[in-house]
Design brief:
single chain, alpha+beta, 92 residues, 15% strand
Length: 92
């Protein structure tokens, strides 16, 4: 699909991929400004010994409400039960 050569140092991989962002900060900014109705991230700090770990998450109920409340997802939502099989004979 893409032909990358490490000898071509003048061209960035980001440029070859034609991404709309060049950094994590730019991607996060796009997510925060262009995706409407998404719940905010919450930061939880866990103290383990003398180390503090930060965990970021979103409230799952707010996420579900956001998905179900957005009509642009309607064609992708499946409400009927589905069967998934692991065998070719569809017995398990």
């Amino acid at each position: 699909m893409f032909n990358f050569h490490f000898t071509d140092l003048g061209t960035k991989i980001v440029d070859k991929l034609r991404l709309l962002y060049c950094s994590v900060q730019e991607l996060n900014s796009m997510i925060n400004t262009e995706l409407s109705g998404h719940p905010c991230f919450q930061c939880h700090v866990l103290d383990i010994g003398d180390e503090k770990l930060e965990f970021f998450c979103r409230d799952i109920l707010e996420c579900i409400q956001s998905l179900y409340g957005d009509p642009s997802w309607a064609q992708d939502m499946v409400f009927a039960p589905e069967r998934h099989y692991t065998s070719h004979t569809h017995t398990s």
